[in-house]
C-alpha cells in the first residue's frame, strides 16, 4: 500500500513570487520524513504540492515532477482528485466537517465518493478510529457532531478521516502545533504506528518532534528575504541532528537562528 | 535631614488601585442615560404602530369569515367579508417570486464565491448586484410594465407583480448567499479536497450544508420584506375584491393592495377593512420571521 515519493526539480510559485526553488528529494515508503526550517521557507508549500493542494490557491504554479512510485502526479491528464485520494493530508488546524457527526466525518471521503454499504462504512469507522487511538473515547457518541470534541480529539478525528480512504501517503502539515503536550504525545505515538502502513511526510516547527518521530529529516531555508526557499540538506534524522553537513543546518538546529 | 510628622504618616508608596474619580462616575452616568434614552426613543414609535394596528385591526380578524371569505359583493358601508382573496394573492405572488429568485440568486452567489472569486466577471456581477439592491421598488414595477405590458403586449397580472418582486428579491438572495459562503472557512474546502472529493461535491455536501442555516434565514427575511412591497402592485395588477387563483389572468388582490384600496373607501367599513388587512399583513410577516428563526435553529451547525 505505502508508496515512495520522488520529488525532482520542484519549483513553486504564487503568481510572480517564486516560493520554492529546485527541490529534489526522496521520501521512502513506510517511513516518516520530517520537513523542518524557519517560517516562510516553503516547507508547507512543498508538502501541499505533493498532493496537488498547492494549486487550490489562485495564481499558484508548479514546475518539476513529483513521482509516486514512478508516476508523475503532475503529468498531463492526471486528475488532481485522484491524486488526493492516493495522497491524504492532515492540516495544522483540526478541521472536522461541522455539519457531520463523528462517524460521518470519518467516512466522509468514502461517502462523498458514493460508498453506501452501511456495514462496510461501520467497519471502516471502527477501524479508522481505532487506528487513530480515538475509538475508546468516542465509540458511545459516534452520532454526535465532530465539532464537540476537544482540540486533540478533533485532530485525531481528522487523522482517522484521512486514513479511512486508505491513501498510500499521508501528509501532515504541523499536525500538533495547536495541541497541548499530552495530545501531541498521543499523535506522535500514532505516527509511529501509522508508519507501519503508510508513507508519512510531516512538517513541523518543533525540532524535538522531528527528532522523535522521523526517520529522515529535510532542512529547508530561506537564503535571504525575498528569495525562494531552498532545500539545504536531507539525511537520516540522527545524522542531521548530530552531525549535519551544512553550517546553516547546524545553526538552525542548535538554535542560533529561526 | 529634617523629618516632618506629615512625611512619617504618608504611606511608603501610593496604592495601586484608586477609587473611580467623580468625573468618570458622572460621565458614566451620562452615557448610560443617553443610551437608555435612545433605546426608548427607538422603541416608542414601534410599539405605537403595533398598538394602533392591534387596536384597530383586531376586531375584523376575530370573525371566522375574515380568513375564509373575500370582499366580493360588499357595499362601501357593509361590514363583514374577509381577507382570503388578498392572502391568496400575496402568498401566490411571493411564492412564485421565491421560485424564480432563490435558485437563480443562490446559483449566482455560489458562482461568485466558489468559482469566480476575484475574476473580472465576478467583480462586475457583484457591482451590478449592489446597484440592483438599491433599486427603488417603483422603478422595478415600471421596468416590468415596460417589458411585460408595453413591449410583450401582455396583460397586467399577478405574475407581472412576481417578476417585479424578483428584481427586488434577487440582490438580497445573491448577497446573503455570498456572505454566508464567504464565512465558511477555506479549511473545510481544503479538508474535503484533500480527501479526494471533487469541487462540485465539496460545494454541495460540505460548503452549502455548513452555510444552509444562514442562507435560509436570509432568503426568508428577504421574502418577508418583499411581501410588503406596494409600489409595483399599484402599477402591475388591478385590484379585485373576489378570489382569483390565477396569476396569469385578471386582477388579483394582495394584502398591501387591499390596504391601499380600502383606504380610498371613506366609510367606517372601509377603515375596518384597511386596518384588518394591515394587521393581517404584519402578522403574516411576523409569522414568516418566526419560521426563519426556527429554521435557522434547526439547520444551525451543532457542537453537541
Automatic annotation (TrEMBL), chain A:
Where it sits in the cell: the answer is: Cell inner membrane
* GO CC annotations on file: plasma membrane
Membrane topology for this entry?
Peripheral membrane protein
Task: Name the PROSITE patterns for this protein.
Answer: ABC_TRANSPORTER_1, ABC_TRANSPORTER_2
What is the role of this chain?
A: Part of the ABC transporter complex PstSACB involved in phosphate import. Responsible for energy coupling to the transport system.
Q: Which organism is it from?
A: Actinopolyspora biskrensis
| Gene3D superfamilies for this protein | P-loop containing nucleotide triphosphate hydrolases
Concerning InterPro entries, the annotation shows: AAA+_ATPase (IPR003593), ABC_transporter-like_ATP-bd (IPR003439), ABC_transporter-like_CS (IPR017871), P-loop_NTPase (IPR027417), PstB-like (IPR005670)
> What is the name attached to this protein's record?
Phosphate transport system ATP-binding protein
GO-annotated biological processes: phosphate ion transmembrane transport
Question: Where is this protein chiefly located?
Answer: membrane
Could you cite one Gene Ontology molecular function of this protein?
ATP binding
The ABC transporter domain covers 5-247
UniProt keyword annotations, A-Z: ATP-binding, Cell membrane, Membrane, Nucleotide-binding, Phosphate transport, Translocase, Transport
From TrEMBL, chain B:
What Gene3D superfamilies does this protein map onto? MetI-like
What membrane topology is annotated for this entry? Multi-pass membrane protein
Entry keyword annotation includes Transcription: no
Query: What does the entry list under GO cellular component?
Result: plasma membrane
Q: Where is the ABC transmembrane type-1 domain?
A: 87-296
Main subcellular localization, coarse class? membrane
MF annotations from Gene Ontology: phosphate transmembrane transporter activity
Q: Which residues cross the membrane?
A: 30-54, 93-115, 127-148, 160-183, 203-224, 274-295
Quick one: a GO biological-process term for this protein? phosphate ion transmembrane transport
Q: Which UniProt keywords apply?
A: Cell membrane, Membrane, Phosphate transport, Transmembrane, Transmembrane helix, Transport
Q: Where in the cell is it found?
A: Cell membrane
Q: Which InterPro entries match?
A: MetI-like, MetI-like_sf, Phosphate_PstA, Phosphate_transprt_permease
Matches recorded under NCBIfam families: 3a0107s02c
Q: Which family does it belong to?
A: Belongs to the binding-protein-dependent transport system permease family. CysTW subfamily.
**Function comment:** Part of the binding-protein-dependent transport system for phosphate; probably responsible for the translocation of the substrate across the membrane.
What is the protein's given name?
Phosphate transport system permease protein PstA
Amino acid at each position: 500500500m505505502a508508496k515512495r515519493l520522488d520529488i525532482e526539480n520542484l519549483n513553486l510559485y504564487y503568481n510572480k513570487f517564486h516560493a520554492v526553488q529546485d527541490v529534489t528529494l526522496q521520501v521512502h515508503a513506510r517511513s516518516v520524513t520530517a520537513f523542518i526550517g524557519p517560517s516562510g521557507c516553503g516547507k508547507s508549500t512543498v508538502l501541499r504540492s505533493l498532493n496537488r493542494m498547492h494549486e487550490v490557491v489562485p495564481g499558484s504554479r508548479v514546475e518539476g515532477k513529483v513521482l509516486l512510485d514512478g508516476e508523475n502526479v503532475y503529468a498531463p491528464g492526471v486528475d488532481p482528485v485522484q491524486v488526493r485520494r492516493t495522497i491524504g493530508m492532515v492540516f495544522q488546524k483540526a478541521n472536522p466537517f461541522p455539519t457531520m457527526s463523528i462517524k460521518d466525518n470519518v467516512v466522509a471521503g468514502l461517502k462523498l465518493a458514493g460508498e453506501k454499504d452501511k456495514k462496510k462504512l461501520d467497519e471502516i469507522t471502527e477501524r479508522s478510529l481505532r487506528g487513530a487511538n480515538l475509538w475508546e473515547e468516542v465509540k458511545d457518541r459516534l452520532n454526535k457532531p465532530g465539532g464537540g470534541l476537544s482540540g486533540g480529539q478533533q485532530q485525531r478525528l481528522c487523522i482517522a478521516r484521512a486514513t479511512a480512504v486508505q491513501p498510500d501517503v499521508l501528509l501532515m502539515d504541523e499536525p500538533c502545533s495547536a495541541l497541548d503536550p499530552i495530545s501531541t504525545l498521543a499523535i506522535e505515538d500514532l505516527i509511529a504506528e501509522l508508519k507501519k502502513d503508510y508513507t508519512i511526510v510531516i512538517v513541523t516547527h518543533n525540532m524535538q518532534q522531528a527528532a522523535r518521530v522521523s526517520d529522515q529529516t529535510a532542512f529547508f531555508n530561506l537564503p535571504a528575504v525575498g528569495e525562494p526557499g531552498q532545500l539545504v540538506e536531507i539525511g537520516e534524522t540522527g545524522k542531521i541532528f548530530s552531525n549535519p553537513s551544512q553550517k546553516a543546518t547546524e545553526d538552525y538546529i542548535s538554535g542560533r537562528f529561526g | 535631614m529634617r523629618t516632618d510628622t506629615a512625611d512619617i504618616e504618608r504611606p511608603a508608596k501610593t496604592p495601586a488601585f484608586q477609587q473611580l474619580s467623580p468625573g468618570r462616575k458622572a460621565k458614566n452616568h451620562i452615557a448610560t442615560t443617553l443610551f437608555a434614552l435612545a433605546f426608548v426613543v427607538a422603541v416608542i414609535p414601534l410599539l405605537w404602530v403595533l398598538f394602533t394596528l392591534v387596536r384597530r385591526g383586531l376586531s375584523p380578524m376575530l370573525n371566522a369569515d375574515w380568513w375564509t371569505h373575500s370582499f366580493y359583493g360588499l357595499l362601501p358601508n357593509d361590514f363583514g367579508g374577509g381577507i382570503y382573496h388578498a392572502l391568496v394573492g400575496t402568498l401566490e405572488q411571493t411564492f412564485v417570486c421565491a421560485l424564480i429568485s432563490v435558485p437563480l440568486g443562490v446559483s449566482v452567489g455560489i458562482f461568485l464565491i466558489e468559482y469566480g472569486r476575484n475574476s473580472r466577471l465576478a467583480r462586475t456581477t457583484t457591482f451590478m448586484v449592489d446597484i440592483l439592491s438599491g433599486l427603488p421598488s417603483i422603478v422595478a414595477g415600471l421596468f416590468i410594465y415596460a417589458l411585460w405590458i408595453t413591449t410583450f403586449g401582455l396583460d397586467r397580472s399577478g405574475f407581472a407583480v412576481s417578476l417585479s418582486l424578483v428584481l427586488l428579491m434577487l440582490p438580497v438572495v445573491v448577497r446573503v448567499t455570498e456572505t454566508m459562503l464567504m464565512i465558511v472557512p477555506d479549511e473545510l474546502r481544503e479538508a474535503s479536497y484533500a480527501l479526494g472529493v471533487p469541487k462540485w461535491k465539496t460545494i454541495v455536501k460540505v460548503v452549502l450544508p455548513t452555510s444552509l442555516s444562514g442562507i435560509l434565514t436570509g432568503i426568508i427575511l428577504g421574502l418577508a420584506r418583499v411581501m410588503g412591497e406596494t409600489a409595483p402592485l399599484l402599477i402591475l395588477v388591478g385590484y379585485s375584491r373576489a378570489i382569483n387563483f390565477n396569476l396569469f389572468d385578471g386582477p388579483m388582490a394582495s394584502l398591501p393592495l387591499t390596504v391601499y384600496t380600502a383606504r380610498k373607501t371613506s366609510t367606517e367599513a372601509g377603515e375596518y377593512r384597511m386596518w384588518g388587512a394591515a394587521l393581517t399583513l404584519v402578522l403574516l410577516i411576523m409569522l414568516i420571521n418566526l419560521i426563519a428563526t426556527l429554521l435557522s435553529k434547526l439547520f444551525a451547525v451543532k457542537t453537541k
